[in-house]
Amino acid sequence: MKPNFSLRLRIFNLNCCAVWGPPSHRADRMRRLGDFLNQESFDLALLEEVWSEQDFQYLRQKLSPTYPAAHHFRSGIIGSGLCVFSKHPIQELTQHVYTLNGYPYMIHHGDWFSGKAVGLLVLHLSGMVLNAYVTHLHAEYNRRKDIYLAHRVAQAWELAQFIHHTSKKADVVLLCGDLNMHPEDLGCCLLKEWTGLRDAYLETRDFKGSEEGNTMVPKNCYVNQQELKPFPFGVRIDYMLYKAVSGFYISCKSLETTTGNDPYSGTPLSDHEALMATLFVRHSPPQQSPNSTHRPAERSPLMSVLKEAWTELGLGMAQARWWAAFATYVIGLGLLLLALLCVLAAGGGAREAAILLWTPSVGLVLWAGAFYLFHVQEVNGLYRAHAELQHVLGRAREAQDLGPEPQPALLLGQQEGDRTKEQ
């Protein structure tokens, strides 16, 4: 690797909102998105909510001269909606489907059916290894009473762990996607503190776009204005996060968002705003990483957010256990009712009524059984993340006893792979 190595990367990210139905103007937006990507010629275009295989194949064919490499990450029932288009050859591909993803009986929300996931592609660029991740986390439907908070925190932890364990051979790590979290939300802080990823909006030298970098803005005609009432300038829930390891340094020269309109035609490409960044990678790391600052473990931002996430997952487990117990009582009552109906039918006194009530009673037992099984699975999923966090916190306390000021990132083994490569 040459000492004066320098590489420019242009990255595009958009939640396409490619839903079915005439009001969305999906076909027209896909056509204009393809035209825009061809004209701009990014190194990487990472998209979310491309639900239709037909839409992906249309974009793949339209973009093939500019982006010869493409992949659609499939999962769940209707698909993860994640896809990537690359100007450079893709060396490796894999994906991870999140353990928890909402509730199947909340059909009007639909997240469970999509099989939310994170997709990974590995690129080799001039001898540098780039791990690019694209993801879409569970939506937040009610900020005041967020029944999916524990699921989204668990997803953020799973995402952080997936990045940590798959990026040890990477020189540069890039994460793009719709995290469905505000910058100060617990899951967002957990993800950034654990992985060491930096926010392009906060790091860029040159920003152009919507107020405060928001990616859902009232000016956009596809946005639900009622949902944005508490946020007059919009919300920032789509991100570009990055970091460099093993002796490389990455910086964001410029970041731009759309502002409720297509940059060319004036009509929005989606209900989300697109993110467009120019990143520079060079072979000259900074003198000191922000993660290596010396401070007591219990007062570090990392430890604070780990403890908060552990508490939130514990609350989520308690709620899931309550629902499982409730389903158990319903199953018991349903079986008791079925037994009573059998007695009545055998006695002949209320045979017709017993026969009429038999089918709904069986349905009740089956529904409660499915409800019980799902929430038991939810308990186990939350317990897994909760146990991992408890292990991390336990190791932190042990390391704290060995010295007055342990370094959180090092004592948790977060950057062991990176340090090995640098040595």
Can you give a write-up of this model?
The chain is of the alpha+beta class. The chain folds into 2 domains: 6-283, Endonuclease/exonuclease/phosphatase (Deoxyribonuclease I, Chain A, 4-Layer Sandwich); 300-400. Helices cover 41% and strands 20% of the residues. It has 10 helices and 13 strands. The chain has helices at residues 26-40, 53-63, 111-114, 149-166, 186-195, 200-203, 301-347, 351-402, 408-411, 416-422; strands spanning 6-15, 44-48, 69-73, 82-86, 92-97, 117-125, 128-136, 172-178, 198-199, 207-208, 238-244, 249-257, 275-282. The strands form 2 sheets. It has a 7-stranded mixed β-sheet with strand order 3-4-2-1-13-12-10. A 6-stranded mixed β-sheet has the order 5-6-7-8-11-9. The longest helix has 52 residues, at 351-402.
Keywords:
423 residues, alpha+beta, Deoxyribonuclease I, Chain A, 7-stranded mixed β-sheet, 6-stranded mixed β-sheet, 10 helices, 13 strands, 20% strand, globular, disordered C terminus, sphingomyelin phosphodiesterase activity, Sph/SMPD2-like, metal-binding, hydrolase
